[in-house]
Please model this.
Amino acid sequence: MLIQLEPRNIPSKIWQVLSPMVAILATVILGFILFYSLGKPPIAALQTLLISPLTNFYGLSELTVKTAPILLIAVGLSVCFQGKVWNIGAEGQFTIGAICGGAVALAFPSINNYSLLLLSLIAGVLGGAIWASISAWLKVRFNTNEILTSLMLNYIAISLLNYLVDGILKDPQGFNFPESAPFNKFASLQPLIAGTRLHLGVILAVVAAVLIWGVLRQTFFGFSVRVIGSSAKAAIYAGIESDRIIWLTLLISGGLAGLAGVCEVLGPIGQLRPSISPGYGYTAIIAAFIGRLNPLGIILSSLLIALLYVGSELVQIKLGLPLALAGMFQGILFFFVLAADILIYNRVKIK
Model:
């Protein structure tokens, strides 16, 4: 007996929408089995993980704070992925954006108005875009695999952050801890609601998702991205410059990741530290695919991924399980999404 996968002529549009829901259900079932095998009450554990963060205002505010960086990065990645430009370097672009924005905030402490905040945000966007442009230039100039170059640049960016917070950006009054001085109020994203950590970055993330959705759906650039993603030969026949699309998609993706990074350090964190991300750049890849590379769908998928982060913190506190539980559930969810995609785009034939 031989099992083969045969491509479908017309993949089901309905199942492309429903498959993430099926993947979520399968993840919950597997989570039930997992908690039971660990000797934890599965119903209570799943309630703590998936429902408890939604039962009070503070939990909802923390959910949106976690959603903002994931959403910004995932929306940028959706632009790249629709054009078959595989940017895996969002973690590094996030980090460089944080470094550039934080450095500007520290370099001009005498500016006593919110123009300093604007300059820091712009610096973060430019930093992320410039870091992504390295992969774009290598791809266009030498046809280098952007997966490898963008991924390796992540580790360079993180090493650079560690070097700077233990060097020239180190707080001289920080008791020798490797971190920068706290940013002053004119370079900080102040809470929008007292008693919470909600900040302007949450609004910027939603606005960015809507704008990118409009650009991809209503402009010639968006059409060009989709054509290249569907067929490189058709794009050449239509006169679409693939090099230009590579540059633009990576710059947009890097800029949004940089914006996420600078919003994170100017908002919830408040300073530069060696660790500013729990892996948002990688998690956003999962959010992008669960959202079907649609910026509006990614809003919902980013909320789901953020829920796993916040819920895992509660599970750690209440049930004593490790915080890595969030990453495990994200991986399980992504596995089921990919498995569903295989069946959507292929049919199983037994010979």
Remarks:
- The longest strand covers residues 3-7.
- Strands lie at 3-7, 346-350.
- The mean pLDDT is 92.
- DSSP finds 13 helices and two strands in the chain.
